[in-house]
Amino acid sequence: MSHSPTPKRLGFFSRVLDQADPATRYRLVAEQILHAEKHGFDSAWVAQHHFNGEEGGLPAPLVFLGELAGRTSRIRLGTGVITLPMESAVRVAEDTAVLDLLANGRLEVGFGTGGTPTSFLPFGLESSDRGAVYAKSLATVRDAWAGRELAGGNHLYPAAPHLLDRVWQATFSVGGGERAGLDGDGLMLSRTQPRPVESPEALLWDLQNPIIDTYLANLPQGRAPRILGSRSLFVAEDRKTALHFAELGLQRSVERFIASGHQVASKKTEDLIRAFDVHVGTPDDVIASLSADTALARVTDLVFQVHSVDPPHEHILRSLELVASEVAPALGWVRNGPAIHERRLATA
């Protein structure tokens, strides 16, 4: 007897990068997440970044998700990721336990080791220590959630043993895939990642398929895999509009890239689309490009973000609608609940 493949889940991800002041950024991303829920998305994820508002606009993701918990009812709310070495592990355990209660059990918790090396310094850390601090902090969070005794004979209140099954680990490496698998956690794969010096033309899935292979090989028997594949995606009803905003956004990104000391081989839009692993165009265009991604075909969770295109808010909302109505169903997503038919932007 043949079996239909398990439907994929659909998510929206934001680094909170709308071209606006912080308060407006938070309002717009909240509206985008509410819109995603309205159109059937299963999850919404926000990233944590410290200090550099051009890299990411949200240093306090749990505060932001706490506000959204009361404004949403179905969509799962996730951190993608909490940079755990820069946090108090016990406070993270407390805040996530409370937030999950406020969200009626809808919290997903993604963890990572952190990014920009200089961001560690104000927290009294060196970037070189991130791996060891991460491992120790993650173990503390797990102990606290599980209700195990902490220093001084203390126990977490409220305990949250259920969150042990909702941990996701982000990684660029095969070693990180092994760690996530051995821990029985979800695996988070990035929208793009650095190419090895010896393989500068490697495709994203060439790098991520070995991570998936290792993750699956190390997952405990009976543990269902959870693999989140994040991809950069901007969909418009016509290719001209999509490419127009892609050119504007990618040029902003590449100028920041150059200003930080990196070299760029080409500033042509088509080359930047390839270099930044961006999928852009009409629904048919992006379905074709995403369907070629052999790593994405293996994920359980399709999670899309508009970075580094970052079009205006109204176009993000329309892109979400097109993803839900046309793109995601072609990639294996099945909507739970009634479809919503809405047209926000008229075709030119």
Describe this structure in words.
Helix content is 39%, strand content 14%. The protein has 348 residues and is an alpha/beta fold. An 8-stranded parallel β-barrel has the order 1-2-3-4-5-6-7-9, surrounded by 7 helices. Mean pLDDT is 94; it is low at 340-344.
Q: In brief, what are we looking at here?
A:
By secondary structure, the chain is α/β, with parallel strands linked by helices.
- Tell me the overall shape: globular
Question: How large is the radius of gyration?
Answer: 20 Å
Beta strands, count = 9
Strand content: 5-15%
- Main beta-sheet strand count, sense and barrel state: 8 strands, parallel, barrel
Structural class: alpha/beta
Helices and strands, in order, run as EHEHEHEHEHEHEHHEHEH
Mean pLDDT: 94
Q: Main sheet: which strands, in order across?
A: 1-2-3-4-5-6-7-9
Number of helices: 10
Itemize the secondary structure elements and their pairings:
Blueprint: E1 9-14, H1 22-38, E2 43-46, H2 61-69, E3 76-83, H3 89-102, E4 107-112, H4 130-146, E5 167-170, H5 174-183, E6 186-189, H6 204-218, E7 227-235, H7 239-259, H8 269-275, E8 278-281, H9 283-291, E9 301-305, H10 313-330
Parallel strand pairs: 1-2, 1-9, 2-3, 3-4, 4-5, 5-6, 6-7, 7-8, 7-9
Helix pairs in contact: 1-10, 2-3, 3-4, 5-6, 9-10
